[in-house]
Amino acid sequence: MSVVSGAMNVLADVKAGFVSRTDVAEAREQLTAALLADESLPLEVRLLLELREVEAGFVDNKRIGRLIGEAGKRH
């Protein structure tokens, strides 16, 4: 199942009144990871997503280093 399909299934469950915080968190984590890995997204979007990950307590120093390097080349 794709990340998008998984997220859609979780949202369908939420709409139907079946809320599993674990499923929501897992779908969010998977979708966020997929978006952060998508280098075709604007740098600003990936920076925002990374800041949200850090805020949630998930720190990926390797990925952060790549983003800082990319931002340094542009600014």
The separation of the N and C termini measures 38 Å
- Largest sheet, if any? none
The gyration radius over C-alpha positions equals 14 Å
| Number of contiguous helices | 4
Mean pLDDT over the residues: 91
Which stretches of 5+ consecutive residues score pLDDT under 50? none
Q: Report the helical percentage.
A: over 70%
Which class do the helix and strand fractions yield? mainly alpha
Order of helices and strands: HHHH
Q: Write down how many β-strands occur, each being a DSSP E stretch of 2 or more residues.
A: 0
Net shape: elongated
**Domain module count:** 2
Strand content: under 5%
How would you portray this structure in words?
Helices cover 76% and strands 0% of the residues.
Give the SSE layout.
Layout: H1 3-15, H2 21-37, H3 43-55, H4 61-74
Helix pairs in contact: 1-2, 2-3, 3-4
In a few lines, what is going on in this structure?
By secondary structure, the protein is mainly alpha-helical.
Keywords:
2 domains, mainly alpha, 75 residues, elongated
